[in-house]
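Can you please make up a protein's amino acid sequence together with its fold in C-alpha coordinate form to help me picture the idea?
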Amino acid sequence: MSQPQENFHRPDCLKDASTVFVPKGTRVFQTGDPCNRFFYLLTGSIRVDLIARNGRTIMLYRFGGGETCVLTTSCLLGGDAYCAEAVAEEDTWACALPADAFEAQLSRSADFRRIVFSSFSARLAAMMEKVEEVAFVPIDRRLADRALQMHRQSPDIRITHERLAADLGTAREVISRKLAEWEKQGFIERGRGMFRIRDTAPLERLASLGD
Protein backbone atom coordinates (compact mmCIF):
# COMPACT_ATOMS: atom_id res chain seq x y z
CA MET A 1 0.00 0.00 0.00
CA SER A 2 1.64 3.24 -1.14
CA GLN A 3 1.46 6.32 1.02
CA PRO A 4 -0.72 9.25 -0.11
CA GLN A 5 1.23 11.94 -1.88
CA GLU A 6 -1.42 14.63 -2.32
CA ASN A 7 -4.73 15.93 -1.03
CA PHE A 8 -3.52 16.05 2.56
CA HIS A 9 -1.49 18.40 4.70
CA ARG A 10 1.15 17.22 7.17
CA PRO A 11 2.00 20.00 9.65
CA ASP A 12 5.71 20.76 10.05
CA CYS A 13 5.49 19.87 13.74
CA LEU A 14 4.56 16.30 12.71
CA LYS A 15 7.19 15.84 10.00
CA ASP A 16 9.02 13.24 12.12
CA ALA A 17 5.86 11.26 12.98
CA SER A 18 5.38 7.86 11.40
CA THR A 19 2.65 7.44 8.78
CA VAL A 20 0.20 4.60 9.30
CA PHE A 21 -2.54 3.14 7.11
CA VAL A 22 -5.79 1.98 8.72
CA PRO A 23 -8.04 -0.05 6.38
CA LYS A 24 -11.78 0.57 6.39
CA GLY A 25 -13.52 -1.47 9.10
CA THR A 26 -10.45 -1.74 11.34
CA ARG A 27 -11.05 -1.34 15.08
CA VAL A 28 -8.53 1.30 16.10
CA PHE A 29 -9.09 0.86 19.83
CA GLN A 30 -11.68 -0.54 22.21
CA THR A 31 -12.72 -0.09 25.83
CA GLY A 32 -9.91 -1.03 28.20
CA ASP A 33 -7.10 -0.72 25.66
CA PRO A 34 -4.03 1.22 26.84
CA CYS A 35 -3.56 4.55 25.08
CA ASN A 36 -0.01 4.66 23.76
CA ARG A 37 -0.16 6.63 20.49
CA PHE A 38 -1.38 10.04 19.34
CA PHE A 39 -3.08 10.20 15.94
CA TYR A 40 -3.44 13.11 13.51
CA LEU A 41 -5.56 12.10 10.52
CA LEU A 42 -4.34 12.96 7.04
CA THR A 43 -7.22 11.39 5.10
CA GLY A 44 -10.20 9.18 5.88
CA SER A 45 -12.62 9.04 8.80
CA ILE A 46 -12.76 7.32 12.19
CA ARG A 47 -15.93 6.94 14.28
CA VAL A 48 -15.79 6.81 18.09
CA ASP A 49 -18.63 4.98 19.88
CA LEU A 50 -19.52 4.57 23.54
CA ILE A 51 -20.93 1.12 24.30
CA ALA A 52 -23.04 0.68 27.42
CA ARG A 53 -23.10 -2.47 29.55
CA ASN A 54 -26.50 -3.37 28.10
CA GLY A 55 -24.97 -3.35 24.62
CA ARG A 56 -26.52 -0.09 23.42
CA THR A 57 -24.22 2.13 21.41
CA ILE A 58 -24.07 5.89 20.94
CA MET A 59 -21.74 7.64 18.55
CA LEU A 60 -19.66 10.23 20.38
CA TYR A 61 -18.05 11.81 17.32
CA ARG A 62 -16.27 11.29 14.02
CA PHE A 63 -12.94 12.82 13.09
CA GLY A 64 -11.32 13.11 9.69
CA GLY A 65 -8.47 14.70 7.76
CA GLY A 66 -6.74 17.49 9.68
CA GLU A 67 -8.32 16.41 12.98
CA THR A 68 -7.27 14.53 16.10
CA CYS A 69 -9.06 12.20 18.50
CA VAL A 70 -10.09 14.09 21.64
CA LEU A 71 -10.43 10.86 23.64
CA THR A 72 -6.88 9.85 22.73
CA THR A 73 -5.60 13.26 23.81
CA SER A 74 -7.49 13.00 27.11
CA CYS A 75 -6.19 9.49 27.80
CA LEU A 76 -2.60 10.45 26.98
CA LEU A 77 -2.73 13.50 29.23
CA GLY A 78 -4.35 11.59 32.09
CA GLY A 79 -2.58 8.26 31.66
CA ASP A 80 -5.93 6.50 31.31
CA ALA A 81 -7.11 3.52 29.26
CA TYR A 82 -9.73 3.99 26.56
CA CYS A 83 -13.39 4.03 27.65
CA ALA A 84 -14.89 3.78 24.14
CA GLU A 85 -14.15 2.13 20.81
CA ALA A 86 -13.12 3.54 17.45
CA VAL A 87 -13.55 2.07 13.96
CA ALA A 88 -12.24 3.34 10.63
CA GLU A 89 -15.23 4.21 8.42
CA GLU A 90 -12.99 4.69 5.38
CA ASP A 91 -9.47 3.74 4.37
CA THR A 92 -7.49 6.14 6.54
CA TRP A 93 -3.97 7.56 6.65
CA ALA A 94 -2.66 9.14 9.84
CA CYS A 95 0.43 10.54 11.50
CA ALA A 96 1.23 8.62 14.68
CA LEU A 97 3.38 9.60 17.66
CA PRO A 98 4.18 7.27 20.57
CA ALA A 99 3.19 8.57 24.01
CA ASP A 100 6.67 9.75 24.98
CA ALA A 101 7.12 11.62 21.68
CA PHE A 102 3.67 13.19 22.16
CA GLU A 103 4.70 14.52 25.59
CA ALA A 104 8.02 15.82 24.26
CA GLN A 105 6.44 17.56 21.29
CA LEU A 106 3.74 19.04 23.50
CA SER A 107 6.38 20.66 25.71
CA ARG A 108 8.57 22.06 22.93
CA SER A 109 6.29 22.98 20.01
CA ALA A 110 3.78 25.81 20.17
CA ASP A 111 2.36 24.74 16.78
CA PHE A 112 1.79 21.21 18.07
CA ARG A 113 0.08 22.51 21.22
CA ARG A 114 -2.15 24.68 19.02
CA ILE A 115 -3.18 21.65 16.93
CA VAL A 116 -3.84 19.48 19.98
CA PHE A 117 -5.79 21.96 22.08
CA SER A 118 -7.74 23.68 19.30
CA SER A 119 -8.95 20.27 18.14
CA PHE A 120 -9.72 19.31 21.75
CA SER A 121 -11.72 22.50 22.28
CA ALA A 122 -13.68 22.18 19.03
CA ARG A 123 -14.53 18.53 19.66
CA LEU A 124 -15.63 19.22 23.24
CA ALA A 125 -17.96 21.97 22.00
CA ALA A 126 -19.39 19.62 19.35
CA MET A 127 -19.98 16.90 21.94
CA MET A 128 -21.81 19.35 24.21
CA GLU A 129 -23.97 20.32 21.24
CA LYS A 130 -24.72 16.64 20.61
CA VAL A 131 -25.73 16.11 24.25
CA GLU A 132 -28.08 19.09 23.99
CA GLU A 133 -29.53 17.73 20.74
CA VAL A 134 -30.14 14.24 22.15
CA ALA A 135 -31.69 15.67 25.31
CA PHE A 136 -33.94 18.33 23.79
CA VAL A 137 -34.56 17.71 20.06
CA PRO A 138 -37.33 15.18 19.24
CA ILE A 139 -36.19 12.01 17.48
CA ASP A 140 -38.53 12.68 14.51
CA ARG A 141 -36.66 15.89 13.76
CA ARG A 142 -33.20 14.37 14.22
CA LEU A 143 -34.02 11.31 12.11
CA ALA A 144 -35.53 13.43 9.34
CA ASP A 145 -32.46 15.65 9.26
CA ARG A 146 -30.10 12.65 9.13
CA ALA A 147 -32.17 10.93 6.42
CA LEU A 148 -32.10 14.07 4.25
CA GLN A 149 -28.33 14.39 4.70
CA MET A 150 -27.82 10.81 3.50
CA HIS A 151 -30.36 11.27 0.69
CA ARG A 152 -28.28 14.15 -0.69
CA GLN A 153 -25.30 11.77 -0.90
CA SER A 154 -27.20 8.86 -2.46
CA PRO A 155 -30.88 8.12 -3.21
CA ASP A 156 -30.41 4.59 -1.84
CA ILE A 157 -29.72 5.04 1.88
CA ARG A 158 -27.82 1.96 3.02
CA ILE A 159 -27.49 1.94 6.79
CA THR A 160 -28.66 -0.42 9.52
CA HIS A 161 -31.23 0.58 12.11
CA GLU A 162 -28.59 -0.13 14.78
CA ARG A 163 -26.15 2.31 13.16
CA LEU A 164 -28.80 5.01 12.80
CA ALA A 165 -29.78 4.54 16.44
CA ALA A 166 -26.15 4.85 17.56
CA ASP A 167 -25.63 7.97 15.44
CA LEU A 168 -28.74 9.63 16.87
CA GLY A 169 -28.47 8.47 20.48
CA THR A 170 -31.64 6.39 20.64
CA ALA A 171 -32.78 2.75 20.58
CA ARG A 172 -32.95 0.58 17.46
CA GLU A 173 -36.64 -0.09 18.15
CA VAL A 174 -37.38 3.64 17.99
CA ILE A 175 -35.72 3.93 14.58
CA SER A 176 -37.55 0.86 13.25
CA ARG A 177 -40.89 2.21 14.46
CA LYS A 178 -40.35 5.67 12.95
CA LEU A 179 -39.27 4.29 9.58
CA ALA A 180 -42.29 1.98 9.53
CA GLU A 181 -44.56 4.96 10.23
CA TRP A 182 -42.94 6.98 7.45
CA GLU A 183 -43.37 4.10 5.01
CA LYS A 184 -47.10 3.88 5.82
CA GLN A 185 -47.38 7.63 5.27
CA GLY A 186 -45.66 7.31 1.89
CA PHE A 187 -42.59 9.34 2.85
CA ILE A 188 -40.13 6.49 2.21
CA GLU A 189 -39.94 3.00 0.78
CA ARG A 190 -37.88 0.33 2.48
CA GLY A 191 -35.83 -2.52 1.08
CA ARG A 192 -33.41 -5.04 2.49
CA GLY A 193 -30.77 -3.09 4.41
CA MET A 194 -31.78 0.22 2.83
CA PHE A 195 -34.51 2.78 2.35
CA ARG A 196 -35.27 5.46 -0.21
CA ILE A 197 -37.04 8.80 0.31
CA ARG A 198 -40.10 9.11 -1.91
CA ASP A 199 -41.23 12.55 -0.73
CA THR A 200 -38.69 14.95 0.77
CA ALA A 201 -41.18 17.74 1.59
CA PRO A 202 -42.69 16.24 4.79
CA LEU A 203 -39.24 15.26 6.05
CA GLU A 204 -37.95 18.77 5.37
CA ARG A 205 -40.87 20.14 7.38
CA LEU A 206 -40.07 17.74 10.23
CA ALA A 207 -36.37 18.60 10.16
CA SER A 208 -37.09 22.34 10.32
CA LEU A 209 -39.51 22.19 13.27
CA GLY A 210 -38.29 24.50 16.01
CA ASP A 211 -35.97 26.51 13.74
The chain is about 45% helix and 25% strand.
